[in-house]
Specification:
This protein has 319 residues and is an alpha/beta fold. It has 14 helices and eight strands. α12 links the parallel β7 (261-266) and β8. α4 crosses α5 (143-154) and α7 crosses α10.
Length: 319
């Protein structure tokens, strides 16, 4: 009897540590953060989409319309080297996805979670509606490529074509399914921002691994990636995005993509391995493949001229 009581006391103590322990971990406020508007550039624009203030930039005019979707940990800054070239063909719109760049980071909301995969797709179409765009070519890098495909499946009549740049279709879906309920607990929401802040320490190393030749990464590029880390509550928003991740069956639905697709990959992508892009091009019904030499996961940044040349050739096939 005494032994059983002892085990119950031990179990209760363990439960208390698990349930209450995380709340005892201090989460100090971020230092040196600024309001979104204080970090905006001269050419920054903002628009309200379903109550969310979205930061975007534009270039060019006319048709076609290109909408640029950046990857995880990036922002519209990652498209700066190719926006002028793309604008020679039509209108270019790059925007910051929720949890990134200078787009608003709500910590409370009603209805659909703005950081959820569904909201990411809804935002693409909401932006098009707000700007009077009937059809667009979606250009998505990494996780942005996945969003482009999901948008094409949900709204095929609105998407003219897709340019999938090292798209994270077969991997990169966030935490494993068994862990997701844990990420959404009050305990993890308390300490989650501390985990998210690791990107400050490890972000530069991750960026270097995304380039074939990291010696080409300039101080200006590093500053472009560091800037969003000055935004208020960037850590909490990044954790909300992580917690909102869900299972995806996109790989099983690729055969339903009817739009023309250009698959672009660097030949030395160590984030989304190059073989995955080769597989993607094979499994899509209408796909062209362009493998850029001596290039990594961010060809629009590392190899912009080769990137634009591949896009130029693809656009000819759409006419």
């Amino acid at each position: 009897m005494k032994g059983a009581r002892g085990w119950l006391v031990l179990l209760a103590a363990i439960l208390l540590v698990v349930l209450l322990g995380p709340f005892l971990v201090p989460v100090p406020p971020l230092d040196g953060t600024l309001p979104l508007e204080a970090l905006a550039d001269e050419d920054s624009l903002f628009i309200k989409i379903d109550g969310l203030q979205v930061h975007y930039k534009t270039a060019g005019q006319g048709q076609p319309v290109f909408i640029l979707l950046h990857g995880f940990g990036a922002s519209l800054f990652s498209w700066q080297a190719v926006m002028p070239g793309l604008s020679q063909h039509g209108t270019v719109i790059a925007y910051d996805r929720p949890a990134f760049g200078l787009t608003e980071r709500p910590l409370a909301w009603e209805g659909v979670n703005p950081y959820s995969p569904q909201a990411q797709v809804d935002l693409v179409i909401g932006l098009m509606d707000a700007m009077g765009i009937e059809r667009a070519i979606l250009v998505g890098n990494s996780a942005g490529g996945k969003i482009a495909f999901e948008a094409a499946l949900a709204h095929p009549q609105r998407i003219e074509a897709i340019i999938a740049v090292d798209a994270a279709v077969y991997a990169g879906g966030g935490a494993p399914s068994w862990a997701r309920p844990i990420l959404r607990t009050p305990q993890m929401r308390h300490i989650g921002p501390l985990i998210a802040r690791q990107i400050e320490k490890n972000g530069d190393a991750f960026l270097q691994s995304a380039w074939h030749d990291p010696s080409k990464i300039t101080a200006e590029i590093l500053e472009g990636y560091h800037k969003p880390l000055q935004v208020q509550d960037w850590d909490r928003a990044l954790w909300e995005l992580t917690a909102a991740s869900t299972e995806s069956d996109l790989a099983e639905r690729l055969f339903q993509i009817t739009q023309p697709v250009l698959v672009i990959t660097g030949d030395d992508d160590r984030i989304v391995p190059t073989e995955q892009s080769l597989r993607l091009a094979e499994e899509l019904p209408q796909a062209e493949l362009s493998v850029l030499p001596a290039c990594g996961h961010l060809p629009q940044e590392e190899c912009p001229n080769d990137f634009l040349q591949a896009v130029d050739v693809f656009l000819v096939t759409l006419r």
